[in-house]
Amino acid sequence: MSSLQTPSPASPSDGAEVDPGAVDARGTVSSPSASDHSGSNGQLARPLIEELPPGLPSPLQAVPGSQAPGRLTVVVALFLIAALSGAALFVAGFTLGQRQQSTAGTPPSLQERFQPFWDAYGKITNDFVGTYDEKKLVEGAISGLFEALDDPYSSYMTSQEYRESLSALTGQFEGIGAEMTTRDETTNEPCSPIGGTCHLLVARPLRNSPAIRAGLQKNDRVLAVDGESVDGDTLDETIARVRGKAGTSVTLTVSRGDAAEFKVTIERAMIETEDVISEVLANGRVGYLRIESFSSSAADDFKDQLHELVADKRLKHLVLDLRDDPGGFVDAALDIASQFIAEGPIYWQEDAKGRREAKEAIAGGVATDADIRIVAIVNENSASATEILAGALQDTGRAVLVGTPTYGKGTIQTWETLEPDSGGFRLTIAKWLTPNQRWINEKGLKPDVLVEAPDDEDPDEDRVLDRAIEVLLEEEAEGSSLRPAA
Prior knowledge:
Blueprint (H helix, E strand, L loop, with lengths): L2 E4 L64 H32 L8 H17 L6 H14 L7 E3 L1 H12 L1 E4 L2 E7 L13 E8 L4 H4 L7 E5 L2 E2 L5 H8 L6 E7 L6 E6 L1 E4 L3 E6 L4 E6 L6 H15 L4 E5 L8 H8 L7 E6 L5 E5 L12 E6 L6 H11 L4 E4 L7 E7 L6 E10 L15 E2 L12 H15 L9
Parallel strand pairs: 12-13, 13-16, 16-17, 17-20
Antiparallel strand pairs: 1-18, 2-19, 3-10, 4-5, 6-7, 6-8, 8-9, 11-12, 14-15, 14-19, 18-19
């Protein structure tokens, strides 16, 4: 049985983490490229049970007769009773033997506790008059185990659900590599369904993707997929039509500005999600990095873009935008936090027995120099692995947190498969705590500077980001109240 670990999305929940839970919407969805976690051998997923035997035979009947039995009669009667009793004992022994055989794999100490389950299973397989699927019976039983935990981050998933949830965490999917959105031309807000004033637009083509090679551009309007109009569809329905197996093609009918509509045929491929975005703001003074998800590829992508801002462009002011990030892999959070924190714990992990282990910073971070000033933006949808990063930056004094309180997910999940092809599950196996050993579960992290986004804010404005830049540059003017990196 394979295993992964993550603090799953606010889900999603995921992780996550996602997640939050969403799969970008993800759901955090414990996690990819994470360390293996040993666990069950998956026996519960195997339908080992045979049909239970029928009940014991009816009690012996009294021998009729009006006269008192003679000696021969008594002997014969005793022989019959002994013979029939032996048969009954044999049948009873056979029944008990069959029952023990049918519960093979159940530890002896749990035989009595699990007997009602086997009784119910046997009754269904013997007496149910309709049709049933043994695999679904077993999956339903496993699902019930996780539901009984009453933990929003522990759950059973069918094989398909497991693959789909994990793909969101691994940062890979098959498609054309373009983010899409909907926008109402009258309100400039997201809308559904597509049609009329509600348009389907390309939000941005991803770097090195088939979409960008085919010439798709930001704000291109998609009118049809493979000749069928998108009117009446939701965003998710249209994205499902655009995605498909790598190596196959899809044709989009596109409108761009005032030009005549045209068709673009794009060959699908395996796409790496673009979970990190960077740019330079404030007239070249501030480097901006946004993390969309802590996927398996996010840490390497983050380090590359951070190096470009700090080493190549020599920027000393950074904004980390962690808003609406549902989380992902704990390993990614540890790696990214280590780019700013030179030593000491990034977070603490506490197992089911209450034992705590410090997860130390990884040496060689790109931006551990205390002269590099950092502000991190968070909100109520910043969860899980995102909170590990934000909590480490706050506790070590390495960054100022700006925004609103975070989601508050302080647990870590392991993801494991059940064989053969019996789905998988995510199970909460640990708590995580900040470097100062704060457990923020259901409380979240409180920002150092509280800033809320207005409900009526124009999509082209970002007052929280503007305030974060002000805080960053104010710190420079005042000589900085930030403590040196640990």
